[in-house]
Amino acid sequence: MRKYTLAAVAILGALWVVAAFPGEPAGDSEPITPVLPFERLSAGKVELGGMLFGDVRLSGDQSRSCASCHDIASNGAGSQRRHLSPRGTPLKLNTPTLFNAAHNFRLNWSGRFRTLEEQADASLRNPDIMNADTAEVVRRLRADRRIAEAARRLYGRDIDRAILLDALAAYERSLVTPGSRFDRWLAGDARALTPQELRGYRTFKTAGCVSCHQGANVGGNIYQRSGIFEPAALHGVDRLRVPSLRNVAATAPYFHDGSATTLAQAIESMGRAQLGVELDPADVADISAFLETLTGFHDGKPVSVPGR
């Protein structure tokens, strides 16, 4: 049986508890909404941004690109607990996926950045990530005829820092993953989910998970204290931007320090740490089944675990 603290019971009264039953369509006011592609993106800028995203000349020593940590061919993040800095030391935080990042209200675990341009600029200059001098990066890129011609065609001038950041941001805005089975259910396909998956969604709501994980990104739109009832991860951080749960089944390891290796472990820890709830193994399995329905598609393929 679940064991609820009095505080958790108090939280439950303020949550969405609209029940989803097997075989029934979504309600009219579900707390989660479909993730949608961005409209009016320039195909040319997206293409240029994609080239820059995979270009090692963006790093100080020309040894790594944005794609070195953000594996767009799989889950948008890779599978490492923590990636390494140019000096070979582990980063302080797990790398979040870039898929659907443009739908977050703030970026990075700290939520310090409001725009993709700000985040890209900070990553380029960060000595633990790209360790680049932006002016030097621009000089390198101007010597590349293909990139230089694309910048003049799309922006009407030679590539500069603003163009570099704008093109990267355009590409990152294109990295959305629509078409998940859960979104099909939200759109009216009552057969898109199994009875266990629907049961898991109901538990996700009634247990309180949805109080932080809701909206189009199933998170990514509020800050929350990490570890309300007990520590949530091995390395404590007072306040974090709540991560999106889109494609979460493919983005292990979990938490800001990558200390949860499986989805079941993450669900159990979140129940105890954030809600004061001890979830039954059956509830954990049901919630996990629901979360797997949030896997969407990119370039016609489902988001996947790296190496699969």
TrEMBL record:
Residues 44-158, 195-295 form the Cytochrome c domain. Keywords: Heme, Iron, Metal-binding, Oxidoreductase, Periplasm, Peroxidase, Signal. The keyword Heme applies. It holds the Pfam family Cytochrom_C. This is Cytochrome c peroxidase. The keyword Heme applies. One of its GO terms (molecular function) is cytochrome-c peroxidase activity. Its main location: periplasm. The lineage of its organism: Bacteria, Pseudomonadati, Pseudomonadota, Gammaproteobacteria, Lysobacterales. It is an enzyme of class 1 (oxidoreductase). PANTHER family: CYTOCHROME C PEROXIDASE-RELATED. Its EC number is 1.11.1.5.
